[in-house]
Amino acid sequence: xxxxxxxQAFRRLLLPLLVVTALGLHESAxxxxxxxxxxxxxxxxxxxxxPPVEGKDAPLPSFIEADRITGLNDVETVAEGNxxxxxxxxxxxxxxxVYRQNDDEVEAIGNVELRQNEDVISGPHLRLKMADNIGFFxxxxxxxxxAPAGGASGPLTVGSGAAQRIDFEGKNxxxxxxxxxxxxxxxxxxxxxxxxxxxxxxxxxxxxxxxATLVFQDVPLLYSPWLTFSLNNKRKSGVLAPxxxxxxxxxxxxxxxxxxxxxxxxxATFTPRLMTKRGLALGSEFRYLxxxxxxxxxxxxxxxxxxxxxxxxxxxxxxxxxxxxxFTGSLDLNGVSDDTYxxxxxSRMTNIARNxxxxxxxxxxxxxxxxxxxxxxxxxxxQDPALPxxxxxxxxxxxxxxNANRADLPFDGHFGFRGEFVRFVHPNQIEGTRTIxxxxxxxxxxxxxxxxxxxxxxxxxxxxxxxxxxxxxERLTRNVPLFSxxxxxxxxxxxxxxxxxxxxxxxxxxxxxRVPTREQSRIPVFDSGLTDFNFAQIFSENRYSGDxxxxxxxxxxxxxxxxxxxxxxxxxxxxxxxxxxFYFKDQLVTLPGETVRTTRxxxxxxxxxxxxxxxxxxxxxxxxxxxxxxxxxxxISGRYQPEPGKVLSxxxxxxxxxxxxxxxxxxxxxxxxxxxxxxxxWSVVGRYNYSLEDHRVIESVGGLEYNADCWSSRVVLQxxxxxxxxxxxxxxxxxxxxxxxxVGSNPLDLLKRSIPGYGRSAQAAGAMP
Length: 769
Description:
It is a single chain. This protein is mostly beta strands and about 775 residues long. About 25% of the residues are buried. The strands form three sheets. It has a 26-stranded antiparallel barrel. Strands 1, 2, 3, 4, 5, 6, 7, 8, 9, 10, 11, 12, 13 and 14 form a 14-stranded antiparallel beta sheet that branches. A two-stranded antiparallel ribbon has the order 34-35. It is about 5% helix and about 60% strand. Among the domains are: about 255-355 and about 375-390, no CATH class; about 615-769, no CATH class.
């Protein structure tokens, strides 16, 4: 056996010496080159424990244990009975071993087990060139484990199964004949791929199989004449597992994606989608990523919709670019062929509710204290014929903005500037341009417990309006000064609550705002609206969004916040706040159709959020009108989540006199959702969102999950109410084979969106190899 190479003479002397030293041979052989080992105990040899290195190809020493060793020096060594061979991290055990030194080849017969690092292969017969890892194994059972290639972080790649024969084709390369492959435990795999030939390449982490059948619980599921799969859940070209599902509007659906791994930073997916009611569609997605740019292009086409009797299509393109030296750019383009595309062909509620599809391009520059951008923006507005007409947003062709901020002025002063030039275009409304100059100056005074920030600003706006409806064009100018004073104090004290040391804060805040009245009724409304009334808005400078209305103000906002803080970690456990705005003058500036405020106080706001008990969180908000003693808005939701895979949530939402695409009048909804295990493997998932005002289900989701050691399954049913009064139903069924493939329609995005806190259970998360 070639243990070390130091020259022919030294090798002849070393072989018997190493065998004697390593095996503890106490009785010399009677014939040259042969002998009997009477003591099988393996002795430590410090002299030969580390081989001399003559180059990177120098072989490592081997150590043999056996009941009997015979052979001819430098030619062949035969070991019999409880044979064990160790070389570095490789261990071979067998009943009989023949080692041919000239070829560095071992042949093992009977109860053969080969351990290479964490790999274990066993069978009746092995021939292997140990240094080159070339040979074969007859009728083996195998378990092969590998860390990700290239030193990358990630879980081990685990594959196991049986074969008629394994051919070793070099380090990390295996060819299996009449074999099975699975990521399950090798003793009793729940699923496996059976193929006439399987090639495993752990350098590229890719597996290829010919004449392959996917078997689950002894039931054949899929057949493919050629199958390719990732050995570490990494990208590779090939046909992906099919997606199967059903919806009420499209019927039974079958999708068979093909994934093309174009390059390390570029890929594409082509997905034929068969819908029994509507026909055959083709979806595609192209992605690219570089150090300075990235993007995604999606396109879907249904050449002949058998229900709508027309061609239907959609596209979406997103691109972002860093040109260097502070210059950036982006594109966001979206479009569909018709107004009911999403409501007919999509099962996602976020798509069904989409009314305006953005089309926008931006080119910008950013410096250390200022930035500028040039944007063109328009929308495709979807007008469902079964619904009231949608308002078409103005297009911005173009919009130029300039922003500057300097916080390094004397006395800690802060200067800011916002400038804008935008041209508004509309097919059937007045058009024009708007120019804004908005300088502002702050002088904050701040200590550890106290802050006071006075602010002065000027909002100067010029409109150049085109002629419309027989009226000539005109130029309008508006200059509105602004003054605000924002002050707050922070008090804190230690607090013992439920035998826990905490810190409680009390943070009163006063915000005074003075904005004089300016006539604005002649200014068209390009992009303004009344903002939502909440804690953020009562401390803002303008009650309107956009810039076409600057609300007049002489008002004071008073609020107080209290927090419970863990003094050791600084984590906020619970927060409560109350606040109200007080007016010193009547409202004069309005939007068209807006009801004028005549009271001296605004609605009362209250909020509470945080952890009210271990693993139990609460989020509540209240808007109360003290003049009519009515609640205008109330939302309360709670979540109990003791561990991953266990979560229950419930909520109630009330909005008075709110109009939405799905409701009219008041909004009163309950929302219950959860994920909870029924046993060690089974979990139930669901959501129930019901409108008490309209007596209808907004969305309902229900399903079951099964998580095993190497596979999981989900069955989910979803029902969504549409804006036209009908509903869309979708059925998802998925079989996920850990580390190999996923078969069926994937409901994970739906469950994550519908169930707050949804996630894989601890048992399922730990099952991944």
